[in-house]
Amino acid sequence: MEKAKSYAFQLLSKKDYFSEELKRKLSQKGFNEEEIEKTIQYLQEKNYLNDEELKKRYIQKYLEKGKSLVYIKNKLFQKGINSNINISFEEELEAALYTLRFKYKKGRNYKEIVKFLSYRGFSYEVILEAYKIFVEEKK
Length: 139
Fold this sequence. Notes:
By secondary structure, the chain is mainly α. It contains eight helices and no strands.
């Protein structure tokens, strides 16, 4: 188990991992299930591995980059996180507005804006509100 712990610390010193990601890495390195489980449990007890905190940081990071709820859920699912993600309407609206302000280069055509944001996974309610605010800003 000490070798598994040592390898886990080596990985965690470079970047944060979710429990499932770390389990995969340890398994790929050839450690058995019992060693992996004990290592993960030890890291969680010592708070070196905290999925909830890491999930919050990922959500915040992606919202600040203007990513939609759908995008965030997909990214977390890829990392082995299947739990509910709670994002307020205002947070998703800010992400949509960020995307429009800094990534949208065309005019103020309603259909183009709806298509632009819907391809990025934003809900229709958020798109409508973002469109109203965006058009008002451009006047």
